[in-house]
Amino acid sequence: MRICHRIPQLIAASIFVFAVSGTALANSSSITQTGRDIVVGEGQSTGDLTCFGCSVKIRGASVNGDITVFAGSISVEGPAQISGDVTAIAGDVRVAQGVSISGDLTTIGGQLRRDPQTQVAGDVTSMSGRGWLLLIFAVPFVVFALFVVFLVWLVQRLRRPAVPAHA
DSSP E strands: which ranges in 90-147? Predict the structure, then answer.
């Protein structure tokens, strides 16, 4: 049997293995939301927080992991302890006094408002402005689209029947 016929089966098996292993290894206190804000109140403790199209609000809580937000904002009020990284892509980050972050603090395509008393053990990176989003996401998409257009043109050119020359 040729390997070409087995590619769909291999892809399906790989997706299944990754899904099962990711579920088994996931921290039970981790939270992932789409379109609905995550709020962790005072005295609470949680694992990784991931939010797509929503915001994360931490009010005096402990986060034992990373906070990652796409197209939303992150607001952390003290006293709060975050043992991982804080990352916002296409969103703002506001960190108040009395907050301690053990990892990196990164914003891409948003504003970073940080109290000078905030403790950040890792690097602080702020690429404010929406131009970064264009550079990071749109440019590779356009290059990929041009590549697909080239492939379609090439396949169509190769499939054209040869036309005999007229005398």
Answer: 93-95, 99-101, 105-108, 112-114, 119-120, 124-127
Angle at alpha carbon of residue 62, lines to 95 and 27, rounded to 5°: 120
Q: What is the pLDDT of residue 70?
A: 92
Task: Give this prediction's pTM.
Answer: 0.65
pLDDT-derived band at 165, boundaries 50, 70, 90: low
- Residue 138 has φ and ψ, to the nearest 5°, of -75, -45
β-pairing, 93-95 with 74-77?
parallel
Domain boundaries, the chain: 30-132
Report the candidate in 27, 57, 26, 21 with the shortest Cα–Cα distance to residue 42. Answer: 57
| Residue 167, number of CB atoms within 10 A of its CB | 3
- Tell me how many degrees the CA angle 107-108-114 measures, rounded to the nearest 5: 25
Q: Is the pLDDT of residue 17 over 50?
A: no
Look-up: residue for tokens 């609000």? 57
At residue 117, φ and ψ (nearest 5 deg) are -85, -5
Distances from the Cα of 143 to the Cαs of 41, 66, 133, 137, in angstroms? 44, 32, 15, 10
Distances (CA, A) of 167 to 160, 161, 163: 21, 19, 12
> Could you tell me what percent of the chain has a pLDDT over 90?
49
